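Course exercise 7: structure representation. Students receive a sequence record and must write out the corresponding structure in token form. The form below is the worked example handed out in class, using Small multidrug resistance pump (110 residues). Read each field label carefully; the graders check that inputs and outputs are placed in the correct fields and that the protein name is recorded exactly as given.

STUDENT ID: A-19
EXERCISE PROTEIN: Small multidrug resistance pump
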Amino acid sequence: MTRAYLFLMTAIVLEVMATTALARSNSFSRLLPSILCVVGYVGSFYCLSIPIRVMPTGIIYAIWAGVGIVLITLVAWIWQGQVLDAPALAGLALILAGVVVINVFSDTLH
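STUDENT ANSWER:
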């Protein structure tokens, strides 16, 4: 299971990298961000295919999407100066709480 989580975390990081590059690609008109975007998404989906062999698809997707949403929001906040108001922060906290509940309390992963 540890190997599955390692690949899942790698998939999340690559997806965040790809989404960040997508925002910088200017609709795929800039070469380097466009290449990083495509490579990042391909790598992310490959890494996502490893844990899906041993973990439930819905749970993997919930973790991948939830953590990815929070990380890409943090990247946009830190590097691009995007503003997060109280409702946005509360929503992100709820997403993180959901990921924690799945991982700590759910018997689905065991």
